[in-house]
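seq as requested:
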Amino acid sequence: MIEQLDRIEQDGLAALQNASDEASLEQWRVAHLGRSSPLMMVFAGLSKVSKEERPVVGKRANEVKQALEAALAERSAALREAALARALQAERLDVGLPGRPLAHGRLHPATQTLRRIYQVFAEMGFQVFRSREVETDEYNFQLLNFPPNHPARDMQDSYYIDTGKERGDNPVLLRTHTSPGQIHAMRHFAALDPANPPPIRIILPGMCFRYEQVSARSEIQFTQVEGLAVGARVTFGDLKGTISDFARRMFGQNVRTRFRASHFPFTEPSAEVDFECFVCGGEGCPVCKYSGWLEIMGSGMVHPNVLRNGGYDPERYSGFAFGMGPERLAMLLHRIEDIRYFWSNDMRFLEQF
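struct tokens:
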């Protein structure tokens, strides 16, 4: 039996040298390692071998199988290398051709717009103040003059977070706007000198989340830039002048803006601010709802209750606040017609910036 296994190994290795392509290799494998091959017949007949010889024969049969499999793998690799070499010889390679260009990383268009907004407001004396994205109902609504069951809450469908704890009227949620940062900022600065809190001039950028219908101009997640200025004798004229100057710095001296009376619980009086739609040049398109104007921000004078909740005495201090969407500004700057492009991660869109 051992001599038979030696012959099987020798015959198999000799026949393998004649295999010159994938088809002949497959024929060799079936003939020498397939179910009906002489080697497999030896394995099938091990039960008829005496107990004394069985371990020796079985060991030798496994060695032959491993040797044939290793030789098959080596021969297959050699044939592939030979085929590749022939292909390279047949195909001329011009090493003088320029290499493939490397794709360079770049900033997201929303980030580019945010940085431009930072620069404009920095020139106007505003500092950047950060606040958290996960808030409590108290900071997101109640301290901003949204009492429980206030109808204005229906304007901002929220993503609430299950913390596993009963929180009553103060659940945890993803912030629906950057306005909670006003309370955090005022309390931060008021703590520096409770008797005479310093004036504030800041912007608060960050991501916001609302459960609403996705459309060409609305998303469930978006960035906002909140603005807040608090001090003695701050007026609505200061607010209008600041926003108008911001628009001119962003879009040029001839840009048109308009203020429309509105209502927000945390400002009084309040106004919506529209910029001329540069996507359609004021003629009307889906982005501006065919009005020629694009709503950019809400604004107003900080409500006395909000000032008081932030640690500032409304008898001594006044302030203005505004909140804008950088994506909509980017749509104006680059003539983008659908806000959903910003979060689709489509490289055809992102590579244009």
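The chain has eleven helices and ten strands.
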